[in-house]
Amino acid sequence: MNALELHVVFGTGPAGLTLVDELLARGHRVRAVNRSGSASVPRAAELVAADITDEPRMREVCAGATAIYHCAHAPYHLWDDLLPRLQAGFLAGAASSGARLVVTDTLYMYGPTGGEPMTERTPHRATSHKGRLRAEVADRYLRAHTDGVAEVAIARAADFYGPRVLNSALGGAVFVPALHGEPVVALGDIDQPHAFSHIGDVARALATLGERPEALGRVWHVPTISTLSTRQVHGLIERELGVELTRDVLPAATDRAWGPFDEVFMREYAELFYQYLEPQIVDCRAVEDAFGLRPTPFEEGIAATIAWYRQLLG
């Protein structure tokens, strides 16, 4: 493997920044890209500004890359307009450079499963508009690969948790109040199994897919743990902190502001709330069998997350 390969990471949220760290650790040359050109990235990485929807600019930014990674975030209420435009930009950059394109994806396209494990072959039966939109976008990415437009792999993750993860069901709304002795936020039926993907495992999966040509042309589930309920995860936090948590639980979807989430977010998220009302189980054996990637043990992940939040809060 050429240690000077250029890997370009789009998005400087928790997934993008953790991926930058992972790629640097693997000896790659890394370019981080966001709209502002401002972010806290390691000095060893290059940071540039670009609008993903600007296709000529995408061709410039991706020139010479071996792999490019879609870790960019779009607010829910902009998805209808923005997701197709982001896709066009990524495909333009990948097609012009010949770089492998690795896309970070959600589980929304599968829809309610009744607790059946989700595999990469689970049919897309989304009942939500956002789920159907994600299915359409994913299908277009895979068609682009099949048609020879660009080389594409898709990495699907569950709810993120871990260092740098703030806006998640297992993010700041849990760890900040837990450290302050205040009620933590929880959604739906907290005694149902729920899937969580450690942000470090997401980054390792993305980097591996970007390095391995045999990963192309298909969907992969990133290493994810689905065996614990939200209440059991809270129990791990309690043991790490040595305190008993109290909870503020939202039992059903709402279109009103709730906890740390504003009205716009809650209204947009309501159609996806089913994820917290049934067992959410993700089968990630394919990525383990192919590349040896396994999820970080939850106890280890929780300890690292608490340590990061303690540092954040001072």
Q: Please, could you describe this protein's structure?
A:
By secondary structure, this protein is α/β, with parallel strands linked by helices. The chain has ten helices and eleven strands. The strands form three sheets. Strands 3-2-1-4-5-6-10 form a seven-stranded parallel sheet, with helices on both faces. The protein has a two-stranded parallel ribbon with strand order 7-9. Strands 8-11 form a two-stranded parallel ribbon. Helix 3 (79-97) links the parallel strand 4 and strand 5. Helix 1 (14-25) crosses helix 6 (199-211).
Brief descriptors of the model:
314 residues; alpha/beta; Rossmann fold; two-stranded parallel ribbon; 11 strands; 39% helix; globular; Epimerase_deHydtase; NAD(P)-dependent_oxidoreduct; NAD(P)-bd_dom_sf; aldehyde dehydrogenase (NAD+) activity; Nucleoside-diphosphate-sugar epimerase
Identify the CATH class of the domain at 6-161 and 196-226 and 281-296: Alpha Beta
CATH topology of the domain at 6-161 and 196-226 and 281-296: Rossmann fold
CATH superfamily heading of the domain at 6-161 and 196-226 and 281-296: NAD(P)-binding Rossmann-like Domain
Pattern of helices and strands: EHEEHEHEHEEHEEHEHEHHH
The major β-sheet equals: 7 strands, parallel
Q: How many DSSP E strands?
A: 11
User: Which stretches are low in confidence, meaning pLDDT under 50 for 5 or more residues running?
Assistant: none
**In order across it, which strands form the biggest sheet?**
3-2-1-4-5-6-10
Domain NAD-dependent epimerase/dehydratase: 11-216
InterPro entries: Epimerase_deHydtase (IPR001509), NAD(P)-bd_dom_sf (IPR036291), NAD(P)-dependent_oxidoreduct (IPR051783)
GO molecular function, one term: aldehyde dehydrogenase (NAD+) activity
Protein name: Nucleoside-diphosphate-sugar epimerase
